[in-house]
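sry for the spam today, last one i promise. struct tokens for design, 270 residues
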């Protein structure tokens, strides 16, 4: 079994000694491999909508004289180009998150504002399926972070909760403080996730049910983005689920320490 890579170099020191140095290349090889896999997966994922757009456009030309067909194919064309747009957006977002591990726009951020913006972003799509987004009562908790990225993370969890739930159900969004951390929980009454898949849903392009994910416009990158955003903030994301009953995803972020923030600000001003 291969456990790692070492690179050796040897140099002669005078005629009695040989200096041998070893570099551990395991980590950089692993990163190379992950990058190669990502590029291979991206190519595969892009081929589906691009292929469909090509075919639909050709069919549209052939069906140009039949208004009913034109409408049908043009509508499918819009769906496929929207899919391509969403995929491109997520790929760019994820690449950006992977290339920086420091946060550029970090500030003391109200969790309430982040959660409210994420709920608002999903309100229309939830209402269309009579899914009620239930917000917990207001919270004064604050974290250090990039409000835009945090909103993307919470919004991705809410979007999934809605996407993988039947109509006329409820999605709850709660916030609480626990041992120096702020915890945001998103709970649904949806299809749930089999235990054997729980570990893998945060992987890029991993889907429990690929057909369902594609049919609902999923890119397979939503949870990978959440994991990166939360990781960059020194937090974590976890999931509990019961197939057929529903799922809960939680994001934990270190709670901002107001005294520390003030002290740092004063120091910076000096
Ligand atoms: P996708 O774009 O496919 O939704 P994600 O990375 O957001 O990609 O999620 C990965 C997979 O995890 C989904 O395809 C789905 O199978 C599963 N999943 C995510 N959230 C939920 C949820 N709330 N309920 C059930 N399954 C979920």
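last one done:
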């Amino acid at each position: 079994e291969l456990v790692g890579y070492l690179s050796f170099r040897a140099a002669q020191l005078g005629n009695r000694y040989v200096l041998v140095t070893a570099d551990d290349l395991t980590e950089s090889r692993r990163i190379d491999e992950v990058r190669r896999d990502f590029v291979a997966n991206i190519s595969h994922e892009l081929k589906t909508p691009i292929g469909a757009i090509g075919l639909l456009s050709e069919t549209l030309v052939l069906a140009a004289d039949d208004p009913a067909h034109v409408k049908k194919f043009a509508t499918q064309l819009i769906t496929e180009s929207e899919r391509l747009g969403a995929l491109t957006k997520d790929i760019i977002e994820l690449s950006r998150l992977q290339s920086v591990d420091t946060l550029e726009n970090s500030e003391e951020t109200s969790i309430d504002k982040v959660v409210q913006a994420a709920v608002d972003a999903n309100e229309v799509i939830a209402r269309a399926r009579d899914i009620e987004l239930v917000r917990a009562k207001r919270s004064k908790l604050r974290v250090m972070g990039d409000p835009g990225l945090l909103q993307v993370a919470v919004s991705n969890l809410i979007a999934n909760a809605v996407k993988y739930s039947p109509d006329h159900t409820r999605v709850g969004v709660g916030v609480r403080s626990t041992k120096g951390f702020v915890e945001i929980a998103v709970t649904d009454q949806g299809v749930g996730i089999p235990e054997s898949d729980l570990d893998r849903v945060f992987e890029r392009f991993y889907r429990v049910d690929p057909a369902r994910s594609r049919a609902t416009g999923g890119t397979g990158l939503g949870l990978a983005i959440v994991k990166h955003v939360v990781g960059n903030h020194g937090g974590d994301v976890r999931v509990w689920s019961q197939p057929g009953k529903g799922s809960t995803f939680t994001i934990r972020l270190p709670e901002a320490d107001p005294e520390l923030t003030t002290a740092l600000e004063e120091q910076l001003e000096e």
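The CA atoms of residues 28 and 257 lie 35 Å apart. ok im logging off now
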